[in-house]
């Protein structure tokens, strides 16, 4: 079973349960964020962006490659943080040996703050997150043309005339569209402007009530709902999709607590991604 959701023209689907499984597909960008668990319908997705090596985010890597190799699909691009690169390679070599056939894949070391192209108009960057093991979130950017400041007040006729004269009216800018946190403490948000400005943000929110308080959440490298709402004014995102809720909370309790605690400034912008 998977959750399907949509914000404007961007669809996303998958599952996320804290400590159990997380994987979110964004068809628009042909990207799968994490693969903690496996969904056969997603074998065709060519780009896999892995946040960290915990099993609830990464256990599906060998199976995904194995399935694609058997189906003779193109080698997928699997982006991982630098710290887990060598060990992931070793695991994949061993599994290929166990299964008795060649695994076909591109495993890519993905340093933070570095551009990786997805297509001509889109790239992504990894940004450091703070967790118990090396981890990183990902931000996808669209390259868009934006009218230069000096031309903002012109009317259509004047713009048309300048265009005709060959004047370059726009700048090419990079617009952060989607950020995906993986597992992290709240610093991921506080430290990265592109994450705060992303149109859509997938944000981990493992704990939501006092039985596991903020200190406990931080001790385990996670974020508590109270921290997100405490910093509510920092988030410039149009949509914030909360993921990775602990299995200790019943679904209706999550919805109720999130609804009751949401500060005015975030009303209408918070979604819960619950399977
Ligand atoms: Zn996790
Ligand atoms: Zn983790």
Question: What attributes characterize this protein structure?
Answer:
275 residues; alpha/beta; Metallo-beta-lactamase, Chain A; 7-stranded mixed beta sheet; 9 helices; 14 strands; 27% helix; 29% strand; binds zinc ion
What does the model show?
With 275 residues, the protein is an alpha/beta fold. It has one domain: Ribonuclease Z/Hydroxyacylglutathione hydrolase-like (Metallo-beta-lactamase, Chain A), CATH 3.60.15. The protein has nine helices and 14 strands. Strands 1-2-3-4-5-6-7 form a seven-stranded mixed sheet. The chain has a seven-stranded mixed sheet with strand order 8-9-10-11-12-13-14. The termini are close together. The model has no long low-confidence stretch (mean pLDDT 96). One zinc ion (ZN) binds at residues 18-19, 22, 54, 56-57, 183, 244. One zinc ion (ZN) binds next to helix 1.
Distance between the termini: 8 Å
Percent of residues in helices: 25-40%
Q: Helix and strand string, N-terminal first?
A: EEEEEHHEHEEEEHEHHEHHEHE
- Largest sheet composition: 7 strands, mixed
- Mean model confidence by pLDDT: 96
Which fold name fills CATH's third level, the topology?
A: Metallo-beta-lactamase, Chain A
What binds here, in terms of ligands, is: zinc ion
- Rg is 20 Å
CATH architecture: 4-Layer Sandwich
Q: Please give the CATH class.
A: Alpha Beta
The CATH H-level homologous superfamily: Ribonuclease Z/Hydroxyacylglutathione hydrolase-like
Class by SSE composition: alpha/beta
The number of helical elements comes to 9
Strand order of the largest sheet: 1-2-3-4-5-6-7
Percent in strands: 25-35%
Number of strands: 14
**How many distinct domains?**
1
Sum up the overall morphology in one term: globular
């Amino acid at each position: 079973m998977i959750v399907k959701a949509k914000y404007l023209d961007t669809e996303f689907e998958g599952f996320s349960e804290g400590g159990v499984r997380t994987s979110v597909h964004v068809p628009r960008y042909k990207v799968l964020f994490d693969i903690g668990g496996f969904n056969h319908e997603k074998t065709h997705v060519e780009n896999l962006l892995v946040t960290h090596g915990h099993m609830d985010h990464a256990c599906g890597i060998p199976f995904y490659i194995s399935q694609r190799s058997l189906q003779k699909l193109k080698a997928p691009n699997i982006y991982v943080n630098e710290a887990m690169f060598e060990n992931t390679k070793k695991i994949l070599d061993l599994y290929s040996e166990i299964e008795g056939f060649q695994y076909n894949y591109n495993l890519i070391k993905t340093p933070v703050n570095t551009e990786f192209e997805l297509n001509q108009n889109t790239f992504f960057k990894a940004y450091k997150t703070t967790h118990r093991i090396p981890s990183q979130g990902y931000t996808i950017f669209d390259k868009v043309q934006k009218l230069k400041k000096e031309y903002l007040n012109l009317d259509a006729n004047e713009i048309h005339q300048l265009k005709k004269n060959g004047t370059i009216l726009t700048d090419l800018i990079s617009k952060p569209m989607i950020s995906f946190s993986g597992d992290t403490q709240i610093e991921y948000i506080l430290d990265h402007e592109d994450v705060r400005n992303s149109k859509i943000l997938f944000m981990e929110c493992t704990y939501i009530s006092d039985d596991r308080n903020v200190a406990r959440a931080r001790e385990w490298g996670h974020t508590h709902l109270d921290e997100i709402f405490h910093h509510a004014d920092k988030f410039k995102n149009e949509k914030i999709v909360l993921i990775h809720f602990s299995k200790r909370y019943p679904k209706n309790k999550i919805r109720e607590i999130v609804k009751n605690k949401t500060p005015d400034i975030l009303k209408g912008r918070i979604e819960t991604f619950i399977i």
